[in-house]
């Protein structure tokens, strides 16, 4: 197989995405319009005249060396990862180097291992287990193992820290399988606390609607950020995200708002591409936490994902710690209540194309704490 790589129109890119069962929303052409601080382009792989793969590439310039860029393919590209990688990645490297890239960073959408909710729960209770990888995998994906070894052998450098959160998108995620399941099946798979909270929200009269009040969401999101000590994104970011993703597909992104007696108590953002749905952002009020608005939002999004025929409901990143004393363990404990599974992906990898510039960039990023 001899493939070529070249620029494609956003319309061609979107048409290809629509033929796929699962593509990360970070690999849709609309995402390039969200990341306004990066220059973006859509690329395609061609087998003769047939388009067989796509990528959204985000270009990040080097400080004081604007003619060089880091070419970033978040959770991509969208190619066949099951065979030899060289016919796919070699022409990509040639194309990007010729256009000023000093390195490529990509994140194959390929899993390597999964762990069940029961395994995770037992691991947290076991003092001898401090990390997900200390547990035997419930499932090992041979494609993931092959991709990992293939990238390493081809000179790509892993960017995956042990704690799961690094320079880009998390390697470990928590997902709820939906394919072939009913809402009752999913509810039965949740732990007792989650089921109790969902029932309590209904009993308390929490109402969840799909709305468009981004300002109300953002006010609650900023409140959540102050309480939980993280840096919130500005309102403009969410306005841009909703405008860009909705323009590409009116069903792509939705805002869920949970009210109790007129008060907004929780809000969440759901994104869907094909058969994959993501819980993307969430916010909750400190007051009235006892009415369980966040659980009500999650349950509404899961039910809507099932109704849309999705295969998976993705709760996004987790830290893989099982140490009960680690402050990050609460994140996985919250998500494990959904009864899904912890998933490790291949993670993000760099290929230096201009080693000197890459070393300078790496030094700069280390100094500024990434």
- Given helix and strand content, the structural type is alpha+beta
The CATH architecture assignment of the domain at 4-107 and 348-367 turns out to be 3-Layer(aba) Sandwich
* Regions with little confidence, pLDDT below 50 for 5+ residues: none
Alpha plus pi helix count? 12
CATH superfamily of the domain at 4-107 and 348-367: Gcn5-related N-acetyltransferase (GNAT)
- What is the topology, as strand order, of the major beta sheet? 7-6-15-9-14-13-12-11-10
Q: What fraction strand?
A: 25-35%
Alpha-carbon distance between the two ends: 38 Å
CATH class of the domain at 4-107 and 348-367: Alpha Beta
- Averaged pLDDT, please? 94
Fraction of residues in H or I helices: 25-40%
Q: What spatial form do the alpha-carbon principal axes imply?
A: globular
Number of beta strands: 16
- Helix-strand pattern: EHHEEEHEEHEHEEHHEHHEEEHEHEEH
Pfam families: FemAB (PF02388)
GO molecular function, one term: aminoacyltransferase activity
Organism: Streptomyces buecherae
Protein name: Peptidoglycan bridge formation glycyltransferase FemA/FemB family protein
């Amino acid at each position: 197989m001899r493939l070529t790589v070249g620029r494609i129109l956003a319309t061609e890119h979107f048409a290809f995405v629509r033929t796929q069962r699962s593509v990360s929303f970070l690999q849709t052409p609309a995402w390039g319009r969200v990341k306004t601080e990066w220059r973006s382009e859509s690329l395609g792989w061609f087998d003769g005249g047939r388009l067989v793969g796509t990528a959204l590439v985000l270009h990040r310039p080097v400080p004081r060396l604007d003619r060089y860029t880091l070419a970033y393919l978040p959770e991509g590209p969208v190619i066949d990862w099951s065979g030899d990688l060289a016919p796919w990645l070699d022409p990509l490297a040639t194309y990007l180097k010729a256009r000023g890239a000093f390195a490529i960073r990509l994140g194959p959408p390929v899993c390597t291992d999964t762990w069940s909710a029961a395994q995770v729960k037992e691991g947290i209770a076991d003092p001898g287990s401090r990390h997900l990888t200390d547990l035997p995998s419930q499932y090992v994906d041979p494609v993931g193992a092959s991709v990992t070894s293939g990238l390493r052998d081809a000179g790509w450098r892993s960017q995956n820290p042990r704690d799961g959160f690094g320079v880009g998108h998390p390697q470990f995620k928590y997902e709820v399988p939906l394919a072939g399941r009913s809402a009752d099946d999913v509810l039965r798979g949740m732990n007792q606390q989650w089921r109790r909270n969902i029932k309590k929200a209904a009993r308390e009269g929490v109402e969840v609607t799909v709305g468009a009040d981004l300002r109300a969401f953002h006010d609650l999101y900023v409140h959540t950020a102050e309480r939980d000590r993280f840096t919130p994104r500005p309102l403009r970011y969410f306005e841009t995200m909703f405008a860009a993703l909705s323009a590409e597909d009116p069903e792509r992104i939705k805002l869920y708002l949970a009210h109790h007696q007129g008060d907004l108590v929780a809000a969440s953002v759901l994104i869907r591409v094909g058969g994959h749905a993501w819980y993307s952002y969430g916010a909750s009020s400190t007051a009235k936490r006892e009415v369980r608005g966040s659980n009500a939002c999650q349950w509404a999004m899961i039910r809507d994902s099932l109704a849309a025929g999705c295969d998976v409901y993705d709760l996004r990143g987790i830290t893989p710690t099982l140490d009960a004393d680690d402050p990050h363990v609460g994140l996985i404990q919250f998500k494990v209540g959904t009864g899904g599974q912890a998933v490790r992906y291949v993670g993000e990898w760099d290929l230096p194309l201009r080693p000197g510039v890459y070393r300078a960039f790496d030094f700069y990023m280390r100094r500024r704490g990434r």
